[in-house]
Amino acid sequence: ESETATEAVTTVTPGTAPGFPPFEMKEGGELVGFDVDLLSAVVAAAEGYELGEWQEFDFDSLTPALTGNNIDVIAAAMTINDERDETIDFSDPYYNADQAVLVRADGEFNPSELGDLAGNMVGAQSGTTGETIAKENVESANYNTYDSYVFAVQDLQNGNIDAVVLDVPVARTFADQRPVEIAFVEETGERYGFGVREGDSELQSALNEGLSAVRDSGEYEEIRNEWFGS
Ligand code: GLN
């Protein structure tokens, strides 16, 4: 046992929803990605906290997992918005994104604006901002919901749906790896934050301190370059 008095360290259990590359995904059974590296660096830079074991959920189960105390922080490319802010709190923003409309690369369906989606089959991941946009622009019979964007993109490739609405950086990653392409971008100006329980202002402040420390140290930029290129 150490003889030096040490401050008590609080373990923070993180939750995420893999299948959202390059923010969080499984590689050879390992959870990896920008959010994984960034949150690890942020918590390491925050005094009095250490990161616990990552827990994996479907995206729409993350908020219930947080409010139900199964996890302490959400790191899942989650957009800060008023609706979510009623239930949970967010750290300062750490990444910006817009929405992309992804189609098959065969050129058959080439929408150039949201209005062009009407009458076509559109998919998104349950509980996302992409889902909200899709639902606003097609009849409910023309909307398919998925537990993961991986399944939505698979259905797009298979021809079961005509378009998927999702965050631009992730759409780019899928377009690099599969026969799909971005038809157009809808500028939504979203900003991602780490989610904490409402009123957990100690952790919220610690994350904000950690975030600003990793920005100042250059670590943020290193992690960003690693996952997105410079
Ligand atoms: N940024 C989007 C949202 O918050 C998508 C997040 C995700 O699918 N992981 O809804």
UniProtKB/TrEMBL annotation:
Solute-binding protein family 3/N-terminal domain mapped to chain residues: 11-230
GO molecular function terms attached to this record: ligand-gated monoatomic ion channel activity
Keywords for this protein: Signal
Chief localisation class: other
Assigned GO CC terms: membrane
Residue stretches of biased makeup (Low complexity): 1-18
UniProt protein name: Amino acid ABC transporter substrate-binding protein, PAAT family
Naturally occurring in which organism (per UniProt): Halomicrobium zhouii
